User: Which sequence fits this backbone?
């Protein structure tokens, strides 16, 4: 026969276990609710660390083989290299959108680095007009995912060069790298080994031939 | 250092070709080939499409009395420099680089984006290999105008542009790059896919007609 005190102890322990289980389940539910509330209150937009300014994006269109200016208000940093990278990032974001007139996957993260280098003569003296060479280093994923075609690749190169020139007029030359290395073509057509003169691009953008 | 090429000292090849060669020579460059498949066109690769286009255009041109040189007749790899080398050795009066894509609409017609060489700086004997086309840009633009007219006459939607394409940048002849895309415009003929035989025939016939017109213009110029 079970002693009376052991029966009482068993009942007390069972009651304590049930109460602790209920409390634990309640705490778990509260923690889950707190987590969900925390996600809801998380910022949905990146904090703007710079004031919004107007930028001119030269946006390509595959349907008519043109590059047309589009003026947008963007938060732009003061540093010229960061500024150029932010503008080109926005341009590539437009191309990565589902309804883009010039669809190219990748978006802003496709620009690995961007450098502005003063153009020097053969003696190493910087040009008196302060003209600069922009070196755009693209990610391998961007080059691999870019649609292959003479028109689409030419438009991508043209729109990047024209956008740089429209927002940073002292950028007169542009060179492209992929993952830090020179590359023969973007996706089988457009030459990436040459230095592009932004004045040539202005001619090309002005109505083809 | 850029490699140099030698060309006749008395001026562009075009001016002296009729006396030297009895036939009007055209170079057809089917883009890509071998390991380089080019763009995907549905189930087909661009290299196969351009080769078929080149062979079809060659037949039409030979029937019209042209001398035709093709950069490739099969699925073989060719470097851009080799394509230009074949074209430059042919002393051609016109060069066409053939491409195809699924983006855009109609035919995309391109001329090299190199800046034209000014006459004062033009040394006809030696040209930098990578920018040799610069001396022919003005003639290439004229040739593109003739091709544009012929394609428009055939109700093909045409877009014009300039491009940096290594193969044509080294060619020493009037050169255009022709990229065929599906016809999406709502003209009299309606939309057409790249596989559409009627569309292919219209494009190839228009290119042949353009070359006939270009030849007659060259003969008129040589008689003056």
Assistant:
């Amino acid at each position: 026969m079970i002693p009376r005190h052991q029966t009482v102890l068993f009942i007390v322990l069972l009651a304590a276990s049930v109460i602790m289980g209920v409390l634990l389940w309640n705490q778990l539910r509260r923690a889950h609710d707190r987590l969900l509330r925390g996600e809801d209150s998380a910022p949905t937009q990146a904090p703007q660390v710079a004031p919004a300014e107007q930028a001119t994006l030269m946006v390509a269109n595959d349907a008519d083989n043109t590059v047309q200016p589009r003026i947008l208000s963007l938060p732009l940093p003061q540093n010229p290299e960061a500024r150029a990278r932010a503008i080109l990032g926005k341009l590539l974001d437009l191309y990565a959108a589902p309804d883009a007139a010039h669809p190219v996957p990748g978006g802003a993260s496709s620009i690995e680095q961007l450098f502005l280098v003063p153009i020097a003569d053969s003696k190493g003296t910087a040009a008196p007009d302060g003209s600069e060479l922009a070196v755009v280093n693209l990610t391998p994923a961007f080059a691999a995912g870019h649609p292959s075609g003479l028109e689409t690749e030419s438009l991508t190169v043209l729109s990047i060069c024209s956008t740089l020139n429209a927002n940073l007029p002292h950028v007169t030359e542009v060179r492209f790298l992929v993952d830090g290395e020179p590359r023969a073509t973007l996706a089988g057509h457009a030459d990436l080994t040459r230095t592009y003169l932004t004045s040539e691009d202005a001619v090309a953008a002005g109505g083809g031939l | 250092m850029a490699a140099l090429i030698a060309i006749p000292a008395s001026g562009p090849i075009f001016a002296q070709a009729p006396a030297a060669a009895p036939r009007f020579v055209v170079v057809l460059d089917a883009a890509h080939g071998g390991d380089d498949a080019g763009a995907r066109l549905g189930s087909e690769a661009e290299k196969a499409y351009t080769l078929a286009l080149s062979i079809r255009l060659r037949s039409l041109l030979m029937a019209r009395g042209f001398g035709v040189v093709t950069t490739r007749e099969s699925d073989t790899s060719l470097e851009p420099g080799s394509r230009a080398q074949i074209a430059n050795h042919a002393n051609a009066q016109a060069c066409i680089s053939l491409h195809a894509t699924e983006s855009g609409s109609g035919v995309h017609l391109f001329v090299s984006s190199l800046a034209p060489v000014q006459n004062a700086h033009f040394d006809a004997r030696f040209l930098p290999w990578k920018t040799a086309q610069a001396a022919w840009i003005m003639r290439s633009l004229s040739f593109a105008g003739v091709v544009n007219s012929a394609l428009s006459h055939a109700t093909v939607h045409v877009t014009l542009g300039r491009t940096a394409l290594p193969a044509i940048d080294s060619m020493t002849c009037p050169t255009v790059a022709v990229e065929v895309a599906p016809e999406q415009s709502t003209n009299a003929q309606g939309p057409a896919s790249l596989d559409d035989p009627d569309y292919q025939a219209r494009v190839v016939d228009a290119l042949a007609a353009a070359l006939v017109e270009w030849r007659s213009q060259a003969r008129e110029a040589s008689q003056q």
Summary: The beta strands of chain B are 4-6, 25-30, 40-41, 44-45, 67-70, 94-100, 107-112, 126-128, 158-163, 175-180. Chain B touches chain A through 37 residues (CB under 8 Å). Residues 113 and 162 of chain B are 5 Å apart (CA to CA).
